[in-house]
Design brief:
Blueprint lengths: L4 E5 L1 E2 L2 E2 L1 H17 L3 E7 L3 H4 L9 E6 L8 H15 L3 E5 L2 H14 L2 E6 L1 E4 L5 E7 L4 E6 L6 E5 L16 E5 L30 E5 L10 H10 L2 E4 L1 H5 L20 E5 L5 H7 L4 E5 L13 E3 L3 H17 L1
Helix pairs in contact: 3-4, 5-8
Length: 330
Amino acid sequence: MAKGIWIFAERTDGTLRKVTFEMLSEVRKMADTLGEELCVVVLGEGVEAATKDCGPYGADKVYAVESPLLKDYTTEAYTKALVDLVKQHQPSILLGGATVIGKDLFPRVAARLDAGLAVDCTEIKLGEGNQFAVKRPMCAGKVYADIAFADATLKMATVRPNVLIPSQPDASRKAEIVKVAPALTADDIKCKIVEQIKVAGEKVDLTEAEVIISGGRGLKGPENFVLLEEMAAVLNATVGASRAAVDAGWRPQSDQVGQTGKVVSPNLYIACGISGAIQHFAGMGTSKYIVAINKDPEAVIFGKCDYGICDDLFKVMPALTEEMKKIRKE
């Protein structure tokens, strides 16, 4: 019989991503209601430091799956290691972040395990009869669907970062650490990481950023993104871009927010010179607060934002940045 709720914990530079703690905090309550064990699965090499962070956020047990072949993420190695572990212990629910890796890994795991999978969820809950259920956007964010799992032994879902609120960690709480040596060989891996190139002064990833300032066609050129960078430095924010700005070559594709870019859910999203087409809104519509700066009073974004400034962004942005600097100094 399937038993236990599992969370796949993704790491970046050896540190667990914030979405792991967000899921742990929310699922802890669910596990208590169901009387099930809450477990975290960490894959990689040298994962011991990361495993210690799980207990304070509510994990009962951590599976530390270690192998030199798991040092870097590869689809084949991570899929096999996670599938083998799930087959051995048969949890009832498996969750992960709706990140680049989560979106690559979870469909493959679900296919091999014949499991039900809901992706990019903005809410996880217990529905009628304490059955696991989720909510996720559909049709480019125009509607939200409540999804239940019918007759699925294993229920799987990926959760959008920043939509769940992490609880304060309890330092006195410890998790049992179970070390696992996966049955992996070099023959299991068809693609190998040859080189990793990191950008100097790498910023917080868009999917994990709490504050995002994005620019669109209204910035008129790549040189004007300096206005966003200056404000981002004051707010400790990450700079994003619309598809129009990326297609024009003003920003790299990794900065793109939207249906064909990254889906984000920051606490604050500032849209500068962005019209607010549905494709862009699909990528940031779940932001807690949306501020729009656009000189076009008919811009669609004004119908979707919490606060709007209808004025020339080239006047507004420098003035806002200066005011924010003053507030920071107080």
